[in-house]
Design a protein that fits this description.
- The structure is a homotetramer of 137-residue chains.
- Chain A is α+β, with helices and mostly antiparallel strands.
- Chain A has a single domain, classed as Beta-Lactamase.
- In chain A, 34% of the residues lie in helices and 18% in strands.
- Chain A has three helices and four strands.
- A four-stranded antiparallel β-sheet of chain A has the order 2-1-4-3.
- In chain A, strand 1 and strand 2 form a beta hairpin.
- In chain A, helix 1 packs across helix 3.
- Chain A is globular, with a radius of gyration of 14 Å.
- The two termini of chain A are 18 Å apart.
- Chains in contact: A-B, A-C, A-D, B-C, C-D.
- The interface between C and D is medium-sized, with 19 and 21 residues.
- Chains A, B, C, D: Pfam families: HbpS-like.
- Chains A, B, C, D: InterPro entries: GlcG_carb_metab_protein, PduO/GlcC-like, PduO/GlcC-like_sf.
- Chains A, B, C, D: This is Heme-binding protein.
Chain lengths: 137, 137, 137, 137
């Protein structure tokens, strides 16, 4: 299998996320997946929260599955909105709040995603975004 | 086991769905199930979203299980409504928004369902509806 | 997401499998997955066995996950052999007997797999093999 | 939560495993868990097998859960042996063959485990062992 993202690229992304997480003083769980949501690399920073190991991976998966950042799903899954109830499907693997960001190569092809979890959803997104900026695909 | 829908019928339905999906420029996941919600045929069109592989099959299952199009469930599952929370049951196999349509034979017997996923819920329903129109049971 | 296998290629594979299945009089479940084991196309031939819908998809997944035909796993998973007990892992998604065959492009890259189920394991493999021969990647 | 293993230690272990994996020409999935089997770090080397992402993590978990290297379980789980069938328990999270090794601090306290998967079981163990040697806890 050839991936649209290499381990080296994933490690660079994680490194950038760690720098950002340290800068805000929030140790994070950080997951990078490929364009089919297969896990490429993961780290749990010291003193992070256990919940984030699972959630960070699922945020990355969700971004790939929907081809969008997970925070874009927030309005769509509220009561009365178009995708209300969707998080019950797909074997409980979807996360419908912020912290998963999509990675695209320079030509727009989906390369994978970064998922971050342990802080507030805004912090999670901010740290994931730092990872995205570090990606040169 | 004899089904109320043949593979040839299912393939015709999928063909009609593909034509409709192409006409609106949205590559779809399309699933056809029989009257017990067993999968008869499935296709993932090129460049579709991964989320739709699971969701399209579950939309078709949900239509058969409730004997109705899935969009009819939307008002029933909202907070305060009669079936609020139902999507958590059945092992997460229910989808409670549009895109699953019920197939009936000319005498009204349930033959199966079509589930479509990857576009907006309205697009999904539209493409599934094209499949239903192609069904002569 | 771009796949190493198109829907048209998957449909050609399934067509070849159906011809082979008809030639031996055994209606089959036939699944084609991409190189990350995402489902691309599936058919259940009329009068096939229900067990095969699940098993055919898992055979294809297993071939991709192990980068080999599933029948190669048979000696490895027997009592006392190297991978004894492996089928309990991976959420019950592995099938460790014949019927899943790996698809490679002409340059050797993994493109996906075909999984077939409903006959004897030899029949399943034979029908999957017919699909592989029809694949020009 | 404080762990008996830091992320930096886990990353050193993974680095040593990668060197060993490269030396034998087998790209691996490598997982490091803490003394409660929580995932600390994971990498999938380029061109590895997808099966190993799940299995490597479960090998590490199994080593921690049993407080032993996973290859020690092999004779115990064979037909007629004391733990026959145990891999079906624990939600399918146990791997009962080689490739998971236990990490202990210098005073003998369990610190976590390394799990490796994608090669033969002997290769997997060898690469995990290289990670253990790199651990100074």
């Amino acid at each position: 299998m050839s991936r649209n993202i290499t381990l080296e690229q994933a490690e660079n992304i994680i490194e950038a996320c760690k720098v950002e997480a340290n800068s805000i003083g929030q140790p994070m769980n950080i997951a990078v997946v490929d364009d089919s949501a297969n896990l490429v690399a993961f780290v749990a920073m010291d003193d992070t929260k256990l919940i984030g190991a699972d959630i960070s991976q699922k945020k990355a998966l969700t971004a790939v599955y929907f081809q969008t950042d997970t925070r874009e799903l927030v309005p769509l899954v509220q009561p009365g909105a178009a995708l209300y109830g969707i998080e019950s499907t797909t074997g409980g693997r979807l996360v419908v709040f912020a912290g998963g960001v999509l990675l695209r190569t320079s030509d727009g092809t989906i390369a994978g995603a970064v998922g971050v979890s342990a802080g507030t959803v805004d912090e999670d997104h901010q740290v994931a975004e730092a990872g995205r900026k570090a990606f040169v695909g």
